[in-house]
């Protein structure tokens, strides 16, 4: 296993980045990576039910993306809200940083914001609003920067799973974007909640993975979900967010409850609750690419990704998916 970030890199042609979703949510391709056989096969997402047997369970993240990207009235400053600290108090990232120093105020999202403090390590701002910012009418969906475009009305619907119900994420749990209500209704499933934080956008800045600090994310598991997970023969984590919830729990029976996790899953990690993973294709040198390497082995994942590039799979949030068995 390697702690060197450079070992988790790969070449990706820009044209393979899916900037828009397919018209049909369920029309994506699905690469199947079988760890026991060391094999890679090419299927469709609609083939997923055939890989579940008696006693298997999908665990999905029902967090809902909030329109958390805000622009000041003069368009000179952008805030990305990512954690609510109080009724009108948030943690946020800001661009450009030089215009958002402690004490600065500006008109934004139908109210006034004042920068309370700045974390010198990662640039996090604590922002106090005069009244609730009007996210629904004046906020933008925080689509990833690598899409290379502004958000639009389509993203309000498609950068959201059909089962999203608990508001709080600033990035979609993208493996769930493939599901339609009809497909989900046919599969045994349960929900957990993890509010996806800004770490999904942030690059790993250290070449040594031991030095990378993950942003904390809040999660919750209800009693019905805990019971279903404990009764399952195999647990299929739908997305790395669901897996981060499952693997933040101690070994043994899963208990209902809430918590906060900074888990960084990387090669050498001993999986306790996840037997399979459905996930999209991730950015090179990202914590999510490291996670899939931890589950399936770096050599097998790098071979699978090279094949995905050759076969012109669609990458990232609006792209195709991979099932690791």
How many beta strands in the DSSP annotation? 17
**Shape, principal axes of CA atoms:** globular
- Side by side, the strands of the main sheet go 2-1-17-16-14-3-12-13-15
Mean pLDDT level: 95
Proportion of helical residues: 10-25%
Structural class: alpha/beta
CATH architectural group of the largest domain: 3-Layer(aba) Sandwich
Low-confidence stretches are: none
The number of distinct helices, counting runs of at least 4 residues, comes to 7
Please give the CATH class of the largest domain. Alpha Beta
- Our count of domains comes out at 2
- List the helices and strands in order: EEEEEEEEEEHHEHEEHEHEEHHE
* Percentage beta strand: 25-35%
CATH homologous superfamily grouping of the largest domain? QueA-like
| Terminal CA distance | 20 Å
CATH topology of the largest domain: QueA-like
Spatial extent as radius of gyration: 20 Å
Summarize the biggest pleated sheet. Answer: 9 strands, mixed
Structure notes:
By secondary structure, the chain is of the alpha/beta class. The chain folds into two domains: 5-65 and 144-324, QueA-like; 69-138, Thrombin, subunit H, CATH 2.40.10.240. The chain contains seven helices and 17 strands. The strands form three sheets. The protein has a nine-stranded mixed sheet. It has a six-stranded antiparallel sheet with strand order 5-6-7-10-9-8, with no helix packed on it. Strands 4-11 form a two-stranded parallel ribbon. α6 (287-296) packs across α7 (298-310). It is globular and about 60 Å long. The two termini are 20 Å apart. The relative contact order is 0.22. The model has no long low-confidence stretch (mean pLDDT 95).
């Amino acid at each position: 296993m390697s702690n060197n970030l450079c070992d988790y890199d790969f070449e990706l042609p820009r044209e393979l980045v899916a900037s828009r979703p397919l018209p049909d949510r369920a029309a994506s391709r699905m690469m199947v990576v079988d760890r026991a056989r060391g094999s890679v096969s090419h299927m469709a997402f609609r083939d997923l039910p055939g890989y579940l047997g008696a006693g298997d369970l999908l665990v999905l993240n029902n967090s809902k993306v909030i329109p958390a990207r805000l622009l000041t009235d003069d368009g000179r400053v952008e805030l990305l809200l990512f954690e609510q600290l109080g009724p009108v108090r948030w943690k946020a990232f800001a661009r450009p940083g030089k215009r958002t120093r402690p004490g600065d105020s500006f008109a934004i999202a139908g109210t006034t914001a004042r920068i309370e403090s700045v974390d010198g390590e990662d640039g996090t701002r604590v922002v106090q609003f005069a009244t609730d910012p009007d996210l629904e009418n004046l906020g933008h969906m925080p689509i990833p920067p690598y899409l290379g475009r502004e958000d639009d009305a389509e993203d309000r619907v498609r950068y959201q799973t059909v089962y999203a119900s608990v508001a709080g994420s600033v990035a979609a749990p993208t493996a769930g974007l493939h599901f339609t209500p009809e497909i989900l209704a046919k599969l045994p499933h349960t929900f957990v909640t993890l509010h996806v934080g800004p770490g999904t956008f942030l690059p790993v800045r250290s070449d040594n993975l031991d030095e990378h600090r993950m942003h904390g994310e809040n999660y919750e598991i209800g009693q019905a979900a805990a019971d279903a997970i404990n009764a399952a023969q195999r647990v299929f984590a739908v997305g790395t967010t669901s897996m981060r919830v499952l693997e933040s729990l101690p070994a043994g029976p899963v208990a209902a409850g809430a918590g906060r996790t900074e888990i960084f899953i990387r090669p050498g990690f001993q999986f306790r609750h996840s037997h399979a993973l459905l996930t999209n294709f991730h950015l090179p040198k990202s914590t999510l690419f490291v996670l899939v390497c931890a589950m399936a082995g770096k050599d097998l994942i790098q071979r699978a990704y090279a094949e995905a590039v050759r076969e012109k799979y669609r990458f990232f949030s609006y792209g195709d998916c991979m099932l690791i068995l």
